[in-house]
Task: structure prediction
Amino acid sequence: MRRAVVILLNPVDWSPPGVDVATWRAALAEDMVDLLATMSQLEPAIAGVEADLPLARSIAWPDMPIYQLAELSINAVLSAAAADGFDQAAVLAADAPDLPGLLVGKLLRPLTTRPVAVAPAGGGGGLLGVAAGLPAPPWLPRLDLTADPDILRAAAPRRSMVATTPAWRRIRGQADLRTLDPAVEGWETTRALLTAS
Result:
């Protein structure tokens, strides 16, 4: 079974004082890519619209797929992964640089018995990620990372068809920065920017 985990290069409209927004966005995404590239039994990829391709190429590991999307939707990513021959795919926001690898596994694990799993974004609402068996079920509504997880459950023929996994916050403002734990390994690029600013 082939399982993709795809970083969706969502827009970032905030950065810490003294740090350029584009540089900050690239650091967050690079840390996400580095996390996934070291996980076993998963194939990492990056997805974004045409304007995001230079960023994607700059942070991708060798041979890592990059999907060009017509729109920044989770549905578009799932379609691209299905066309690439994957059996399952998880789509993750690119602004959770210290995401524990264990939570990525928890997002994919329910797909053995359910067609879709969702991870809420703690703190500011929206989604951290969505995973689905491929091709994605036809009842899946159009989703982006701002969607409420309840939209998925409401759209399913039975609410139990959508598994909910633990939430994790995305870094979207000053308050989120304070939750980063310097003792936790990873998020090296983000950490270096914060140290320098």
Q: What stands out?
A: The two ends are 44 Å apart (CA to CA). Helices lie at 21-37, 53-59, 74-83, 101-108, 149-155, 174-177, 188-196. The CA atoms of residues 49 and 70 lie 6 Å apart. The mean pLDDT is 94.
